[in-house]
Amino acid sequence: MTVGLREMTLAIARAQRMDAAAESTPMRPNALAGALLPAWDYGRPLTTRGDFEALVRLCKSWTYICASRNATAVAHGNLRLFVSKPSRDVKVLFPSRAVDRRLHRELELNPVVAGLAAFQKAAEIEELTDHQFLRLFRRVNKFMNRFYLMETTELFLELLGNAYWYVLRNRLGQPAELWPVPAQGMRIVPDRKQFIAGYVYETGMERVPFDESEIIHFKFPSPHSEYYGMGPLAAVIDAVLIGEQMSRYERATFKNMARPDGVLEVDETLKKDEFDRMKEEWVNTYGDTSAAGKVALLEKGVHYKQISLSPRELNFLAGRRLTKEEIMNAFGQNLGMYSEESNRANSEQAEYTYSKYAVAPRLHRMEEKLNEKLLPMFSPDLFCAFDNPVPADEQLRLEQIRAHLDTGYADINEERQQDGLGPRAWGDGPWLSSMLIQAGDASGDQLQAFAGLVAEKVRRRLAADGVRA
User: Fold this and answer.
1) pTM of the entire predicted model
2) Residue 76 burial (CB count, 10 A)
3) Alpha carbon 164 to its chain's center
4) Nearest alpha carbon to residue 181 among 200, 164, 169
């Protein structure tokens, strides 16, 4: 590439960055930032409406199961790094590979990537296979790796609606380490003009201040605050607390502190010493959970009477299931994902729905924040995206391929390219699938034979319908 072309390319890139900066700079100060809170709340750590420590303590039972499942699903996401080239002649300085048609189409359908200026203005896009950003994510600091960082981040989001990264930079100003900050201790310092002036981490008597540029704040939307997010747990806190009360009742039942399962009836009135003896023997023999299933040996004149569940207690059992289902739904899950009675079709449909409506939006939320806050610390020409977590409908894809080939809409190589596969020497041009004859190479006799087969099929169809050809 000549020096003149290189200078032109750099000038185009600088102009694009200047345009992007001009587009993001408002004409006048933000008047709303100073009206979101009472005057006394600005300039100091903002207290939260809810008790974040209490929400963390509720991370157990089905709350933990659902939150942990979402966290591990997000951590399993495969993150890719791309570079936007202003010209096809520009050489990428880092190891890279071409973006095939399938991946490029996936990026176009990604609502986050499609809105990025780096993607929209790119003359060509390449995927980077080695870069400081990728190395940073493989080893986020000396004690943590990428999976732990992503899983912890999403776990805090599920429980509290907020998650924070502390970005530790090197001498060049680029991120050198990433540290997840316990979200229950982080406080935002609001500012009248800049919206956020900084952050303060509080634990006990310790207070650690951070500049706004040092923290990346991930959050769920909240109708209660523009500063703090609201997680799924807060939305179903009543159901979680009811579930806790139900668990306490069940524990009391196991400890014989609630209603007994049965009573002993005697034909005659017992004296006190006989009553105490029988009671002691019964408790010693059957008063523990390890005695479940034992056969009772009763004295003459003593009868055991089973106490059946009342309608109220049957409603309790049904309510426990509804409570569990409500918690699952808040986290984007359903009973079909955990039920042992689900068949394969139901399980696959449940996983498909979960991936599409729960996992994918969470990955989009995270990749948008990375593109907004972290990647500009490296270069404005970089952007990242997760692979689509929604499993492909293989049966639907096979039907599409068959229809495209049968109608001549596409050839074999075009379909292979759509699936990210390489071309075949015999894959260009449409094929007549009934005889596996390529249309461009078919002789007159072959086409005439094919036409005869089609005519015969038509005559048979008409005859079956009672129509004389």
Assistant:
1) 0.72
2) 15
3) 17
4) 164
